[in-house]
Write the structure tokens for this entry.
Amino acid sequence: MLQTRVIPPAEGAYQYPLLIKRLLMSGTRYEKTREIVYRDQLRYTYPTLIERVARLANVLTEAGVKAGDTVAVMDWDSHRYLECMFAIPMIGAVIHTINVRLSPEQILYTMNHAEDRFVLVNSEFVGLYQAIAGHLTTVEKTLLITDGAEKNAELPNLVGEYETLLAAASPRYDFQDFDENSVATTFYTTGTTGNPKGVYFTHRQLVLHTMGVATIMGSVDSVRLLGTNDVYMPITPMFHVHAWGLPYVATMLGLKQVYPGRYDPEYLVELWRKEKVTFSHCVPTILQMVLNAKAGQGVDFKGWKIVIGGSALNRSLYEASKARGIQLTAAYGMSETGPLVSCAHLNEELMAGTEDERTTYRIKAGVPGPLVEAAIIDGDGNFLPADGESQGELVLRAPWLSEGYFNEPQKGAELWAGGWMHTGDVATLDAFGVIDIRDRIKDVIKTGGEWISSLALEDLVSRHPAVREVAVVGIADPQWGERPFALLVVRDGHVIGAKELKEHLKPFVELGHLSKWAIPSQIAVVTEIPKTSVGKLDKKRIRVDIIEWQANNSTFLSTL
């Protein structure tokens, strides 16, 4: 390490720790009267938010929560979740955002593994909690969250009901300074095998991520997505990487925030219209549901800016949304990255191109944000050129990336092998610095001696007018190793088979956009494609389903 010159601070100089409380206190300096809105049930201004965070901190402290304890939350997206995202880490505790869409067995595992001591439970999940309560090993007390008049529930060691307790608590709390490297949040990410892994972030990491996201979304002119006059409504669950960290950004900037509770596409459209929402973020499947909602038919969504992540943004969805007035922007990240590391950006040269060329770059993973380093490596760890052609694993560095997994040092070491975070994604980097995700390493289809990107194939298939939704996976083949298999959801009034799909894809082969080996020889037309708990295509389950269908000679399979 270089021997640099370090000058000690002056006596009495304040050593400013990067703590989440700084984000909360920044919001009121811009627009104090801006509102936090929860469905049609509650709205209040930023000074009230600060008071409610203090009240919650007092409730937790009086209940026995200490610095370093883990406090779990089981709720839908709400003002309460926002208050918990601040109050819990601001008293030095750790918030565990429970993925309520996991199986009861997985939820039980994550709560015991995280060593949850205190749990806030929405009344909707009381039955679920009661079913696992007897197997929890560290939980001492519970607190009830409710929307309605029901203030009682049979929860073990119940402290009381959220609003009742807050009303009786002091609106002031002296939030102390402490080490910025203290853990602030944890949640669990599921993989293809084994138990969920505990990802965690420190105060420092979250503050830096917040600053990075605010810069990417608010300062890069070609995407200019978020400013103090925007109205923010998340459509990514708050249990999933803190709703991509955007509630922290929105609070720091003093935006009006709209929380929809449990997602219902019809109600999301209603909230968008009523509250004049201008900025959201979600995965492609959720956006597709909003576009197909009855309440949205014939509606011009002009002025709605939506960031798409979690899964690849295909051209068909981009153009369909554009036709409805929505400005889509692709972004990239993963649970371990906080999550945002890149966002679509068009420099002057790209802006001068054709509309088709601009669209091509608007749907890519984008340019790494400030302070983010990205590289491509081969299987031996050698760096590959940024030529837009060389494919390898995308690896990253940034000051907010998770540094490991809770109580699993070996998996953390694998994540950071060679001093770079391994994403598990196959990608290219080009001369513009643009990341183009080609596939997950485990989802690349190896057929006829070639590697085929399931994401690229899904994008081209989605352009057929009959296709509403598509997923492509590789299925074992005795001659070719693997062959692509496509699951299709067809639009009302349309019909498509394997032969029609082949005719649709042949021109892309002739143009050199697709290998002839990439044309699926089998498809299945289904009413719904399996999704994960956060709305991504569940390709692990899809592969299992296809094998079962083939074994049973299911009649809805179409073969060339």
User: Anything to note?
Assistant: The mean pLDDT is 92. The longest helix spans residues 46-62. The CA atoms of residues 315 and 459 lie 6 Å apart. DSSP finds 18 helices and 26 strands in the chain.
